[in-house]
């Protein structure tokens, strides 16, 4: 089980082997963290994403990190669920985002991975519920990743992630 840390900051500044992108199915870029990662990685990221997409919700696909600063070598693109009230399998899709991203990290030999709060922005997933799913899924997924950093972009998200991590024991 990887060590899990909750931090606040910009995921494009993380010193890890792979950063996870909360993408849309096209993998061509967008707003939010997707936009930040594409701005930092440069135009080759959208070309690489377009070449391997579309990515289904709950799945994860890797590309190189291009212009992102070392040591980041990979971007793992995953597509979260759009929140529709909770009765449409959103929790299972979100859990799959974390699980598949760790599985992809293992195929890359990535040992340290940073995640944003997937689906809690534009896609509207309640951040408290999302944080519980993130921590539970990371703790229960067999992986060679030994350090996971959950990167919050704001204090509310950080508090939810920290509470979920503390409650997990
Ligand atoms: N670093 C870390 N986290 C960030 C950053 C950043 N630079 N920028 C935004 N975030 C946070 C948001 O504050 C939110 O907590 O990432 C979390 C996820 O929000 P979104 O980026 O809106 O992602 P999501 O809710 O999964 O929606 C995905 O939005 O940008 C589009 O193309 C994307 O269509 C896709 C959709």
TrEMBL record:
<dbReference type="InterPro" id="IPR043472">
    <property type="entry name" value="Macro_dom-like"/>
</dbReference>
<dbReference type="Pfam" id="PF01661">
    <property type="entry name" value="Macro"/>
</dbReference>
<dbReference type="InterPro" id="IPR002589">
    <property type="entry name" value="Macro_dom"/>
</dbReference>
<protein>
    <submittedName>
        <fullName>O-acetyl-ADP-ribose deacetylase (Regulator of RNase III), contains Macro domain</fullName>
    </submittedName>
</protein>
């Amino acid at each position: 089980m990887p060590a899990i840390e909750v931090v606040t900051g910009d995921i494009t500044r993380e010193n890890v082997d792979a950063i996870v992108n909360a993408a849309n199915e096209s993998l061509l870029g967008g707003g939010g963290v997707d936009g930040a990662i594409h701005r930092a990685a440069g135009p080759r990221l959208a070309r690489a994403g377009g070449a391997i997409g579309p990515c289904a919700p709950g799945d994860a696909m890797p590309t190189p990190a291009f212009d992102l600063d070392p040591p980041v070598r990979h971007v793992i693109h995953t597509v979260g669920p759009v929140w529709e009230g909770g009765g449409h399998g959103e929790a299972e899709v979100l859990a799959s985002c974390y699980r598949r991203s760790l599985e992809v990290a293992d195929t890359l030999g990535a040992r340290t991975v940073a995640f944003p709060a997937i689906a809690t922005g534009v896609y509207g997933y309640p951040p408290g519920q999302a944080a519980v799913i993130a921590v539970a899924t990371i703790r229960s997924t067999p992986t060679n990743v030994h350090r996971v950093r959950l990167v919050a972009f704001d204090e509310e998200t950080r508090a939810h992630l920290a509470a979920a991590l503390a409650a997990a024991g």
